[in-house]
Amino acid sequence: MVARTGLYTLLAANVAVVTAFFFQSGLASNALLLLGRLTGLYAALLMAFQLLLVARLPWLDHRIGMDRLTSWHRWVGFGLLWSLLGHGVFITFGYAQSSSMDPVSQLVDLAETVEGVLRAIVALVLIIVIGAVSARWARRRLAYETWHFIHLYTYVAVVLAFTHQVAVGTTFTTNSTATAYWYALWGVALGSVFVGRLVLPLWRNLRHQLRVSAVVPESDNVVSVYITGRDLDKLPARAGQFFLWRFMTKGRWWQANPFSLSAAPDGRSLRLTAKAAGDGTKALRHLKVGTRVFAEGPYGAFTTMHRTRPDALLIAGGVGVTPIRALLEDLHGHAAVIYRVATDQDAVLYDELRELAHAKGAHLFLVSGPATPDKLAPAELTRLVPDIADRDVYVCGPPGMTGAVLRTLRDLDVPKQQIHFERFSLAG
């Protein structure tokens, strides 16, 4: 909560600062140019904030969670797209109004005669393309690696937009205080990305030298991979978190897959458990002992760090059981565990869960059957765990199941601060 409030406050404060600089820089010759300048400044601010959201800084990620940061990133991205479109349209029509040229001719004239405008147009086209492939209908049709590669052009767009702002931005050219502010803002944003996405992962992997130590089939389509390395007791991983894993084999080293830890870190080894859902996950079964591993993380706020009650309820769906199993190992106080699967045969790691629940005095419920009727409806959850409103509730599973359980928890008046969730898209 403190981290979220801090981010909101930071953004609001910067909006106020940017607005003040806007009014200090003087008014434009017409209202359209005025709107164009203002939307351009807000777009620049959103772009810098967007970089902060994707920087994967541990302090933010462990308190807010990549699940929520990813959601914010998506919505800020669409806000950025519309701000940039507004900036381009308002500026073009504003100058066209002053020069009596038609908008298309005016845009061509600006691109040919004003430094930085052509770079801004290229940046806008890149943002439009990235926004298009981020739409749900397009995202579902693209491989993760393709989508990720296209997103890398965001950094090209950022550089082009920044140089455009330096060249023609009124707050850069007329106000030294504003110039210092914008350089500091972009420096912090780009520096955060550099540290969080490059420096920290490289340093951790050089330090820990991760390798595959064992590959254990759990069922026909589920496999566990054990990983060892140096000084793992100094790796700040917690039960419930996940890594982006790259297994350094021919043809696979460039693929990164998010898998949760399926056992609490013990300082000696790490374990992930995955269900075959594509070529990348199917290939895990054929990994050889000794294969080098490059891991980015740990990521996620789905940990005991945010506990508010002494007792807990853990609800897992499908392979979303992996972080739930790790959390159960790490929890103190009484725990109840509900494992939702289509059939009993789909209950991955169930024997481990049962032994662990017995050792910790936890109650374990295996709930199987078709999706309808809803076996995790309010009446059913209350029957299984009568004191649910007095517990922290952790939920991890496919998006459909997770959404349904979250609605049920709201119906049962479970306080929002006691609900912790991770969607299968990141946890699986």
Automatic annotation (TrEMBL):
UniProt keyword annotations, A-Z: 2Fe-2S, FAD, Flavoprotein, Iron, Iron-sulfur, Membrane, Metal-binding, Oxidoreductase, Transmembrane, Transmembrane helix
SUPFAM superfamilies tied to this protein: Ferredoxin reductase-like, C-terminal NADP-linked domain, Riboflavin synthase domain-like
PANTHER family according to UniProt: 1,2-PHENYLACETYL-COA EPOXIDASE, SUBUNIT E (PTHR47354:SF8), NADH OXIDOREDUCTASE HCR (PTHR47354)
Topology versus the membrane: Multi-pass membrane protein
Domain of life: Bacteria
FAD-binding FR-type domain mapped to chain residues: 205-305
Required cofactor names: FAD
Parts of the chain that traverse the membrane: 7-25, 31-54, 75-96, 116-138, 150-168, 180-200
Any Pfam family matching the protein: Ferric_reduct
Predominant cellular place of this UniProt entry's protein: membrane
Location of this chain's protein in the cell: Membrane
Protein name, UniProt field: Ferredoxin reductase family protein
